[in-house]
Model the fold of this input.
Amino acid sequence: MYTEKVMDHFQNPRNVGEIENASGTGTVGNAKCGDIMRIYLDIDENQVIRDVKFKTFGCGAAVATSSMATEMVKGKTVQEAMEVTNKAVMEALDGLPPVKVHCSLLAEEAIHAALWDYAQKNGIVIEGLEKPKSDISEHEEDEEY
Done:
């Protein structure tokens, strides 16, 4: 049912924890399934993500997508992090079962929420970034997987 990569990131998640005084923090959830994901970003003066941590309450797929998403943005610029989509997270994990696709949406939205927080704190605009949703289940019907 789950790929080897999903199982690996679930059983050995990368970047778990919190960053005190994070440059940006984003929390999103899905009221339908109860998953909650929080991502912390440490961004340097050149807008490069120096460090990233996450805390996720949810199923194995939610933990795996959080772990993979943090790996994908670490060391990247803010603009490069904007390009990490739920599809990219799923591809990096070699796929997810259809009923777990929403977990990859949580990962994308949590990154965007953390970037939004960073932009608000620093009075900057990040091209292409829209105000994040705190509950993705409200907009699931609109999303294209």
Q: What stands out?
A: Helices lie at 4-11, 60-73, 78-82, 86-92, 101-122. The two ends are 19 Å apart (CA to CA). The first strand starts at residue 24 and ends at 30. DSSP finds five helices and three strands in the chain.
